[in-house]
Specification:
This is Oxidoreductase. By secondary structure, the protein is α/β, with parallel strands linked by helices. It is built from seven helices and seven strands. Helices cover 44% and strands 16% of the residues. It binds NADPH dihydro-nicotinamide-adenine-dinucleotide phosphate.
């Protein structure tokens, strides 16, 4: 007879492409039951992961819906041991010309989305005295980059509150981790609407030879999570070797 896996539940937002997708594959391979969240449910289902994976069509800015999806997964698989707040958008632009709706969207997804996820799982982690929240920030949360003003604003904020919350919940053995990648080959750039800025980004990127792949980031996430609970990897900043 098959032995049932004792691995705990992991929740990954933005698992329908890029880093989130690679991360979902890695956690699934390690035997964890998963809750995968994104708006493109077809892309989540197309991953064809095992039966212990729940795919939920949820916009992370919709807090009640995110909470509901997490509650359902918890009913089935037990408490959330790891939340990967990965969903994000990068809409490059210049403040003086960019449509303010794009600023709003970045703050809503990159910041409010991460807070919504954190708020949904943290009380139970504190109560259980354990758990890990991994926030996918960016090198843009550590330094400024051309045409990244608002995106940097959201990612600097992610670093700040991740570190603040980490300090506050450390006494309960809950870990918070910032993962800050440089350039990764994903769909991220495809949502930027300013053609000149997109072209500038592409030529900057081409100078650095090989960008990172989503799997490279998934390895860092698995490493941080896989350390014993007594070790908190507070931050991993990783870039293509040739990135400036
Ligand atoms: P992708 O565009 O491939 O993935 C973004 C993911 O976020 C998708 O699964 C998308 O799913 C999801 N998403 C976007 N908006 C929402 C929303 N409102 N609700 C739920 N899910 C949402 O890009 P990456 O894999 O590169 O991005 C993942 C994270 O990595 C982001 O936070 C990004 O800022 C960060 N990052 C990326 C870098 C890079 O160079 N690629 C560098 C540094 C950090 P869907 O559209 O189906 O909702």
């Amino acid at each position: 007879t098959e032995t049932t896996s004792a691995k705990p539940l992991v929740v990954i937002t933005g698992a329908s492409s890029g880093i989130g997708e690679a991360c979902a594959r890695s956690f699934s391979k390690a035997g964890h039951p998963l809750l995968l969240v994104a708006r493109r449910i077809d892309r989540l289902e197309a991953l064809k992961l095992p039966e212990n994976v729940i795919c939920a069509q949820v916009d992370v800015t919709d807090r009640p819906k995110l909470v509901e999806a997490i509650e359902k997964a918890v009913e089935k698989y037990g408490p959330v041991d790891c939340l990967v707040n990965n969903a994000g958008v990068m809409l490059l632009g210049k403040v003086q010309t960019q449509n303010p709706e794009e600023w709003q969207r970045m703050f809503d997804v990159n910041l409010m989305g991460v807070l919504n996820g954190t708020h949904a799982v943290l009380p139970s982690m504190i109560e259980r005295r354990g758990g890990t929240i991994i926030n996918i920030s960016s090198i843009a949360g550590r330094k400024t980059l051309p045409d990244h003003a608002i995106y940097c604003g959201t990612k600097f904020a992610v670093h700040a509150f991740t570190e603040q919350i980490r300090e506050e919940v450390a006494q309960y053995d809950v870990r918070l981790v910032n993962i800050a990648p440089g350039v990764v080959e994903t769909e991220l750039l495809s949502h930027s609407t300013d053609k000149k800025i997109v072209d500038d980004y592409k030529s900057w990127k081409s100078q650095m030879g090989q960008p990172m792949q989503s799997e490279d980031i998934a390895r860092s996430i698995m490493f941080a999570y896989g350390e014993p609970q007594r070790v908190c990897i507070r931050e991993i900043l990783l870039c293509p070797t040739r990135q400036d």
